[in-house]
Design brief:
The structure is a single chain. The chain is α/β, with parallel strands linked by helices and 293 residues long. The chain has a single domain (33-290), classed as NAD(P)-binding Rossmann-like Domain (Rossmann fold, 3-Layer(aba) Sandwich), CATH 3.40.50.720. It has helices at residues 5-12, 19-28, 50-61, 74-84, 96-110, 132-160, 181-201, 219-222, 226-235, 240-252, 263-273, 275-290, and strands at 41-45, 66-71, 87-90, 115-118, 163-168, 206-211, 257-258. A 7-stranded parallel β-sheet has the order 3-2-1-4-5-6-7, with helices on both faces. The termini are far apart. The protein binds nicotinamide-adenine-dinucleotide.
C-alpha cells in the first residue's frame, strides 16, 4: 500500500494544526467520559504484589464494584483478595485460553468488565547475550499478554460502546533501561501497542492509558541487577501506593500517559528533541556506573 503525499501530510502534521483531526477529537470526547472506578468491575493482572496490589487497594478504597486479582502467584493473589474482599484468579496471562475463560467467568459473575489493568510484567538482567527463551518470555508477558487481552476485550467493548484498558509499561518504554535489553525493548513495544489501540478504537469509545513509572519499591526492583538498581536508586524510588495515586488521578483526568515520576515527561522531550545529545548523556551515565572507580 502506498501513502500519497496528501496522506503523508495528514499523518505527520501536529494535530493542533490539523482541522480534521481536531474536529474528530471534539466529536469523540463528549460522548465517552473519563473512567469512573467507583462501582466498576475491574480486573488487574500481576496484582499479587507491588504496583498491581497497590492499584487493587486504591480502587477498592475508592468504591470499585468488583476487583479481580489475577496472578500466577496463587498464594499472593489469595492474600490480596482476602484483604480486599476481592476475587482471586490464578493464571498465566500469556495463556490465551485461560484469559478467555477469565473474561467469560468474570462477566458472567459480575457483569461487563469496565477496566482491565494489564499490569503483570517480567524483566531480565542482560543484553543480546541472553538466550531466546529469556527474550521470548519478556516479549510474551510484556507485549503479547496485552495483545491477547485486547483481542478478546475490544470486540465486547465495541459492542457495548466503551471500556478502558490500562497497560503498565515503564519509563523504560519511553526512554531505555540500562542493564536490561529485553525489558527496555519489550516495554517500548507495550507503549507502541497502547498508542495504536488508543488511536484505532477511540471513536468506538475505547479508552487506553499507559502507565510509565520509573523506580518503584517492589519485589521486581529488588530482583534487578546491580546496574539497573544503581540507576533506579539514582533516579529516586517511590512507593507502589504513590503509583496507585497517580493512576487514580490519571484515570479521572482521562490521561493516556500516566507518569508517577513527572520528570519522565521532560526526559522524553529531551530524547525526542535531540536524540544524539540524549544518547551521549546516557552513554556517560552508563560509563559512570560501570567504569572501575
Ligand atoms: N517496580 C518498578 O520499578 C517498575 C517500574 C516501571 C514499570 N514496572 C512495571 O510494573 C508492573 C508491576 O511490577 P511490580 O514492580 O509491581 O513487580 P512485582 O514483581 O511486585 O509484580 C509483578 C507481578 O506480576 C506477576 N506475573 C508475572 N508474570 C506473570 C504471568 N505470566 N501471569 C500472571 N502474573 C504474572 C508476578 O507474579 C507478580 O506478582 C510490571 O509490568 C513492571 O514491568 C515496574
Amino acid at each position: 500500500m502506498t501513502v500519497s503525499g496528501r496522506d503523508r501530510l495528514t499523518l505527520h502534521q501536529p494535530y493542533s494544526h490539523n482541522a480534521t483531526v481536531a474536529r474528530c477529537i471534539a466529536r469523540i470526547r463528549p460522548y465517552h467520559p473519563a473512567m469512573e472506578t467507583k462501582g466498576a468491575t475491574i480486573v488487574i493482572t500481576g496484582a499479587a504484589s507491588g504496583i498491581g496490589r497497590a492499584m487493587a487497594q486504591r480502587f477498592s478504597a475508592d468504591g470499585a464494584g468488583r476487583v479481580v486479582i489475577v496472578d500466577v502467584d496463587g498464594d499472593g493473589a489469595d492474600a490480596v483478595a482476602a484483604e480486599l474482599g476481592a476475587r482471586a484468579e490464578v493464571l498465566d496471562v500469556t495463556d490465551e485460553a485461560a484469559v478467555v475463560e477469565l473474561i467469560e467467568r468474570t462477566e458472567s459473575a459480575f457483569g461487563a468488565i469496565d477496566l482491565w489493568c494489564g499490569n503483570a510484567g517480567v524483566g531480565a538482567n542482560g543484553g543480546v547475550e541472553l538466550d531466546n527463551d529469556t527474550w521470548n518470555a519478556n516479549w510474551n508477558v510484556n507485549v503479547m499478554a496485552h495483545v491477547i487481552a485486547a483481542r478478546h476485550l475490544v470486540p465486547r467493548w465495541i459492542e457495548r460502546g466503551g471500556g478502558h484498558l490500562l497497560l503498565t509499561a515503564s519509563a523504560a518504554g519511553l526512554l531505555t533501561n540500562l542493564g536490561t535489553a529485553p525489558y527496555a525493548v519489550t516495554k517500548h513495544g507495550c507503549v507502541a501497542l497502547a498508542e495504536w489501540l488508543a488511536i484505532t478504537y477511540a471513536e468506538q469509545g475505547i479508552r487506553v492509558s499507559c502507565l510509565c513509572p520509573q523506580g518503584v519499591r517492589t519485589p521486581m526492583t529488588e530482583a534487578d541487577g546491580e546496574l539497573a538498581i544503581e540507576v533506579v536508586k539514582a533516579m529516586g524510588m517511590i512507593e507502589p501506593s504513590q503509583v496507585a495515586d497517580a493512576v487514580a488521578a490519571g484515570l479521572a483526568n482521562d490521561d493516556f500517559l500516566i507518569l508517577p515520576h513527572p520528570e519522565v515527561a521532560f526526559y522524553e522531550q529531551r530524547r525526542a528533541g535531540d536524540r544524539q545529545r540524549w544518547l551521549t548523556g546516557m552513554q556517560k551515565l552508563q560509563a559512570s556506573l560501570t567504569s572501575p572507580r
